[in-house]
Structures are given as C-alpha cells and as structure tokens.
Design brief:
Largest sheet: none
Number of helices: 13
Distance between the termini: 27 Å
Order of helices and strands: HHHHHHHHHHHHH
Length: 225
C-alpha cells in the first residue's frame, strides 16, 4: 500500500486538489458576481462566449463546480444558456480526461492491474462502463472534475466517457438552469441553490438512483466465477 502511494503521489495529490478547489474558487467568484451583478446582466454576446470558454477550463481544473456555473447561467441567460452550457460541459470533460491522462500516463491502471483480483474487477467494470459513467454523471454529489480523473485513470474509452457523460449531465443541468430562472436574487440563489420541495425531491431522486445503480454494477463486478 505504501509503495502504491509513493508511485502515485502526484496523481493522488492532483485528485485531492480537484476535490478541494471548487469550494475556494466558487466563493471568490460568488463575491465578485454579487458585487457586479448589473455589469454581468449587460454582458455582450462576445463577453458571454468568453465567459463560457473560461468556464470550460475552470470546470476541467475544478476551479468552479458545474452546478454553480449552470445556476448562474440560468439566472442571467435563462434557457438560452442550455446549449452553450452543455457544450462547455462536453469540452471540460474532454480537457479533464486528457489532462489526467497526460499526468498519469497509465501508471495508476498498470499498478492496479498487477493484482489479479483488482484487474478482474476493472475488466468487469469496463464491460458496463457506459452505464457506470452515465450513473456517475447523474449524481449531483459526485465531483465533476474528480470523476473525470478517475475515469481517465481507469482506462475508460474516451468515446463512452464523452457520450455517456453528456447524457448523464443533462437532467441535473436542466434542473440547475431551471432553478436559476426561478431565482429573484443572485445572493439567495448562491446561498440556497436548491430551495424548494420540487428541486430537493428531484435532486434526492437523482442521488438515490445513481447510488443504487453504481452499487449494483460494483457488486456485479466484484463477483468472480
């Protein structure tokens, strides 16, 4: 175990960084948006294009949570935000996957594969990887950037990762944009993003469905003939 951590120190630290950064960066961005709300309301089309381009990188590097970006987009742009937002998610997914691939270079997967039982579990999981990716993306509690890294490290096929991930993100994206359109004040939206029984019920449903589905496929993968 100690040898595993030594060989993957940078990889593990990078994953930890991705899990921590959204809290720090979103707090700073929230303050700026609250104090410059009127300026954002008057953004030009070009300014919004730049904002979504920056969001691609900020989400890929875990500087801003995807739900946070969707809420703000819905608040300022309403349903017009859905297409550029979905495209931004797709690009951020690709960047996160490729960056993790460059950092790790396959070492993480190779070390895990040295153990026969672990290798068998990984191979079993890969048989259902499309469904697993879709379920992971459905859950609002699984960090976007961290799952990008984990799927990249585990050798997930890029085609499955992008297509299943895109489909899985749609329900929570639509919900977040809708919540943004319903908000009356930007501060209230940021501080209480999922206020309301309908939103909470839907979020809870996504979490339960995702966790049950992932639990089923993990249980299935660890069973050996």
């Amino acid at each position: 175990m100690l040898s595993f951590f030594k060989k993957n120190t940078f990889t593990i630290l990078y994953t930890f960084f991705l899990g921590l950064m959204p809290l720090l960066a979103s707090s700073s961005l929230s303050y700026w948006i609250i104090t410059h709300e009127q300026e954002v309301h008057h953004f030009s089309t070009q300014a919004w294009c730049i904002a979504f381009l920056l969001a691609c990188f900020s989400m890929a590097f875990a500087l801003t949570p995807t739900t946070f970006i969707a809420l703000l987009s819905g608040y300022f742009l309403a349903w017009k935000a859905l297409v550029p937002l979905a495209l931004s998610y797709w690009i951020a997914s690709y960047l996160g996957y490729k960056i993790a691939q460059l950092i790790d270079g396959g070492k993480f997967l190779n070390i895990l594969s040295e153990k026969p039982k672990v290798k068998q579990i990984l191979e079993n999981l890969q048989k259902d990887e499309f469904k697993i990716i879709l379920l992971a993306r459905l859950s609002p509690v699984l960090p976007f950037a961290v799952t990008n890294v984990l799927f990249s490290f585990s050798g997930t096929k890029l085609k499955n990762f992008l297509s299943a991930g895109f489909i899985g993100m749609l329900p929570r994206t639509i919900l977040s944009v809708w919540l943004g359109t319903q908000a009356q004040e930007i501060r209230k939206l940021i501080e209480h993003p999922s206020e309301g029984s309908i939103a909470q019920f839907f979020i809870l449903g996504l979490i339960i469905f995702s966790m049950l589905g992932l639990g089923y496929f993990i249980k299935k993968a660890v069973k050996f003939d």
